[in-house]
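As a next step, the fold was encoded as tokens, giving this record:
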Amino acid sequence: MSKMQESEEFLKQTTVVIGHSFSFEHNTDIEQYLSEQVGLGKILQETQSLPLHADPNHVFTVLQANQYDVSLPSDSQQKTQYITSICIIDNDKIILTDNGLKRVKLLDQHYKVISHLDMHLSEGGMCQISTNEVVLALIEWSTHMLHFICVNNGQLVKGNKLKLQHKCSGIAYHSGNLFVNSRTALKQYNMSGELLKSLFEDTTGSATVFKCAVSLPGDRIYVTNHIHSKLLTLATDGTIISSFTDPELRNPYGVHVTTAGQVLVCGCSSASILQVDKEGKKKLATLKSKKYGMFEPVSVCYDSKTNSVIVGQQHSTKNILVLKVK
């Protein structure tokens, strides 16, 4: 065979690639997973700054007190309210967790219920993580978890869940971190539910590390020791800065830091709300209601727009207590 014939035969048998064609076969497992999610994630916008001329040690004085009925016709008549946490959300609305009725309620500026969710709430209550979102502590079939809830068009909307490996008796948020009480320890998590570190532990009782709140700069963590009637102030590494006791602070429950940095703590058995200095070392004032009294306060929140301290009480039938302050 001549060279010319060999060349022609070679060309006939050789395939020439003139282009490529690609197709995509999607993963049906991922498609199913995404269809079950409420979103791909969340954008957190946080502004934490002291208001102009704010004084964290400005002492509150009670001007008047009022009670507001926050019950619903569908509330169980066999159970009583047990409002474990209160937050101001969506600029002018109030969200509260009722561990007695196992309900989350959204109130308008007139303290009327405009939305609610029935959920498996635990004693851990909730904390605010953005202007319109909170995270709740739940227990479902012996599984402890955190559940994100947001306010959308005046309605409460459920979001994602994070599982915990321990009980949650209290929760606070600061700068992308969640601080979770387990009754005897304080742990720090990121927003994905990853345990970053254990900050503090006290195993001398069943509710020694009960509730917590974080100072506005994030340099102090206030923790209530319910069983030993103390308010602890911790550094961010878990070191105790101060330990506060007072006859009017018996079996402390919820603790709250206002938008100006004031520290408020509930004396559950002493039926009072104490204002403590930002160092957590001394009492500045005792907030009470002469007209209505105060029965086992367990949660407190300050509304800067109305200059009001809102109090949730244990075994309350229908009402929250609102103290107008200056």
Q: What stands out?
A: The first helix runs from residue 3 to 13.
